[in-house]
Amino acid sequence: MEKETDAMHGDDFAIVREKLPDEEVLYDLAELYKIFGDTTRVKLLCILFEGEMCVQHLAELLQVSQSAVSHQLRILKGARLVKYRRDGKTVYYALADDHVREIIECGMEHITE
Amino acid sequence: MEKETDAMHGDDFAIVREKLPDEEVLYDLAELYKIFGDTTRVKLLCILFEGEMCVQHLAELLQVSQSAVSHQLRILKGARLVKYRRDGKTVYYALADDHVREIIECGMEHITE
DNA sequence: TGAACATATGAACACTTATTCATTTGTTGA
DNA sequence: TCAACAAATGAATAAGTGTTCATATGTTCA
Description:
Two copies of one chain form a homodimer. By secondary structure, chain A is an alpha+beta fold.
């Protein structure tokens, strides 16, 4: 049997556990940040701050292949961070909502301090 | 030579490029988010919302090995997201500043919508 | 219909990363 | 000083990830 000689044990552990967000929420949170944790994706999102743009142009602007951009857009789409509309052969992507902007600006503050 | 039949070409590309944060900033931003993009680290940070805690207790609370926690704390330390103080044999970790809280809360809003 | 173009997707590969295990460093108290 | 404990670290490994290449899907227009 383990001795409880430390003040942190017992009740305090329980209190922290109680205040801690659910396991699932923390998992989702990490998953969200994971998406922002890639240069190509962050760049894509920042470009879309200025408005919608088609895949080809995104690729040119980023200097990466059409395939790479498409793969990353799929991930952003899956996380509901971007939306898209089709116009003939071309597909235009845009930010899904202003959350994205807020999240990026929030991180930006930490960088540029 | 490439035909510029598309309105987006030329000036517009330049405009987007101009408004886009520097390559270096975007890289740092992605690096920052990468740190939040791991369950163990996010949990560590959230626990530290409630106050400082020593390595052993962090490990117990997270149900991971002392070594694993220590490795992750090193990363958080390197990113200046946590600070620490030594008291005898034990080392107590705490959030470096309120930026961390803001960033996590910002992401949390997106999750719990 | 079929050629041409834009985008999406699957598989493969190189690279990164989180954990574990073994060990070291640092600190206390006997 | 030395045993006991807390934390840090290096190497190895397994799992995850981003890009590329080849190809498929979808759309337009002649």
